[in-house]
Amino acid sequence: xxxxxxxxxxxxxxxxxxITKSAYRDLNPILFAALRFTVCGxxxxxxxxxxxxxxxxxxxxxxxxxxxxxxxxxxYQILWSYGxxxxxxxxxxxxxxxxxxxxxxxxxxxxxxxxxxxQYLNVFLGLxxxxxxILRPTAQLRFSxxxxxxxxxxxxxxxxxxxxxxAWSKPLLRLYSPLRLxxxxxxxxxxxxxxxxxxxAKSTAxxxxxxxxxxxxxxxxxxxxxxGHVLWYEGILRFGVNKTMVYQYLMPVWAVLFNHLFMxxxxxxxxxxxxxIILWAVxxxxxx
Length: 288
Hints:
- By secondary structure, the chain is an all-alpha fold.
- It has one domain (2-287).
- The chain is built from 14 helices and no strands.
- The protein is globular and about 50 Å long.
């Protein structure tokens, strides 16, 4: 069941990058994220109260919840959005694919989830597969002084996702359900995002926001937002942070398939080879 739930996360998060980016033509990225996580947080907390009849969080846990939500979602969204504007999409995707490796190193350094050497080899193998999938012949990979600010911001966003949103959430998931923790984290994130998005929100021409943008917002709220985040925490609760993070490798594979099936984009032979390598590496990490 845990693998099924995380497979659903892959399905809803895989195409999320393209869907979200399509909305940036009409809405400022930070404003879009603020709207998204505000509505997500409210709906998730309503669902939590309906299911659990309680929204109680112990006082001693409030600061940790605030950090997990504010830094793990809010700050991450800000860094990732600004980073993407200063670098290429290929650079951003490749840097973010370091997430599984970073969480393995963090787990070893903090002695929370140690992994064997062969598991590191499998993670490196998966990273090679991701590189083959992302760096198709038409991709623009360009690491230079011009892209360095965006690359660094993306790397910092990656750290926020790995450490705050994923690793620091595990102790809280022993006390609170994934539904309850997700709701509070999203509300904390929305507070951070509105602080940054306040000025752009004043000048937004709401009457010129297109129908596709509203559909994109709806998708990111219901599917990649509510469903994806809750099930991600369900995966961490069941498998731990390390094995859950490995599912990140499957997202570029599904993104390529999604773009091929629905956007008409071409699949290159190296991407097929990369996808096969990823599937093998993920299998070895999860079941070896």
